[in-house]
Amino acid sequence: MKVLVIGPGGREHALIRALAADPYVTDLHCAPGNAGISRDVSTHQIDAQDPAAVLALARELGSDLVVVGPEAPLAAGVADALIEAGIPVFGPTKAAAQLEASKAFAKTVMAAAEVPTAMARVATTTQEAAEALDAFGAPYVVKDDGLAAGKGVVVTSDRAEALAHAESCFEAGGTVVIEEFLDGPEVSLFVICDGTHAVPLAPAQDFKRIFDGDQGPNTGGMGAYSPLPWLPAGFVDEVMERVAYPTLRDMEHRGTPFTGVLYCGLAITTRGIRVIEFNARFGDPETQAVLARLKTPLGGLLMAAAKGELDDAELLHWRPETAVGVVMAAENYPESPIKGATITGIDTAEAIENVSVLHAGTTNNAAGEVIVDGGRVLAVVGLGADLHAARNSAYAGVAAISWDGAQHRTDIALKAANGQISVSEGTH
């Protein structure tokens, strides 16, 4: 099976590593990739958001399956072009990707499917935003309706700050969704879908804020771990029954069946499970931790989803170890990351037992050195018998790598390792 992965980041590097381990995958390419991906497979410099360019490359390579990583190409209709040409694609159509591209649309689907979620109002004016903020009260949750790479959300107890975020979205020509605040720990669950059937992966938890102790501004995610030892029994079954399948049925009913990853961002509140958001693709950095544990060949699973044959797919098998991924970010991220610094120590880190380094924002300079080329630069994943061991592996890898201005959190998975997460009450 020849596979083409679309995307430039850490999630795509994790997909490439997992697909490379699949004995049925005979040929593997990535476009556009990054410095780390180009060490593993052939990369192609095309505009990943141009459906015609992606289709031309897939034809040129004779790809049997195209896996679309990021949200932007999905929203641009890359999957539609491939489907029309008869090439199996893992990723939703433009219409189905609205589940992520529009939070207002996602709320409409959840209402129709009776999926438990936060109460919300859509606002298009400052007055509507102010009324919604007052209706829900603090803490205030304000979300840009469109795609914002995980950074369009403000959660604050400062009403003025919440209103200012809403106004900045309006000025950019957008609308906002204002929601009630959900207490309790958050969980990410990736559900592989073929339009009708669905298979859940192992749950993960990610860390959105830039600084230790969940302080500072939101980012695309500073680290993740999987599985979650504190989850109540039957959690995944409940999410499938109350969230994933009702959503799939509603999307099918609308004539826009969902194929790809339905990423369920969930809060376990004092009143039960609530959906925070849907994404239409693998999440970054949770993918790096989740796929590090997957034993089942990934190519076959994604192909079954693309072809609508998931009901025949084998049960998933997982490594017994725990995985912890720590993101190393550029200086001044998440504001305006400073690019160009030379990175050292990646090979040293990868030589450590149970450590893998996945590239996100990297490229090569003229001398062939790996340099910083984005906000989130690397994810260092450690495997271990438990959370403490996995954390030790991951941070040993982090310690081996350096560049000017590198930053990372030191507390990824620490609360869980110390048994400090409780499901019955809010934790952050």
From TrEMBL:
Its EC number is 6.3.4.13. GO terms for molecular function: phosphoribosylamine-glycine ligase activity. Its cofactor is Mg(2+); Mn(2+). It holds the Pfam family GARS_N. Pathway: Purine metabolism; IMP biosynthesis via de novo pathway; N(1)-(5-phospho-D-ribosyl)glycinamide from 5-phospho-alpha-D-ribose 1-diphosphate: step 2/2. PROSITE patterns: ATP_GRASP, GARS. Residues 107-307 form the ATP-grasp domain. It catalyses: 5-phospho-beta-D-ribosylamine + glycine + ATP = N(1)-(5-phospho-beta-D-ribosyl)glycinamide + ADP + phosphate + H(+). It is an enzyme of class 6 (ligase). SUPFAM superfamilies: Glutathione synthetase ATP-binding domain-like, PreATP-grasp domain, Rudiment single hybrid motif. Keywords: ATP-binding, Ligase, Nucleotide-binding, Purine biosynthesis. InterPro entries: ATP-grasp, ATP_grasp_subdomain_1, PreATP-grasp_dom_sf, PRibGlycinamid_synth_ATP-grasp, PRibGlycinamide_synth, PRibGlycinamide_synth_C-dom, PRibGlycinamide_synth_C_sf, PRibGlycinamide_synth_CS. Belongs to the GARS family. This is Phosphoribosylamine--glycine ligase. It comes from Paeniglutamicibacter terrestris. The gene is purD.
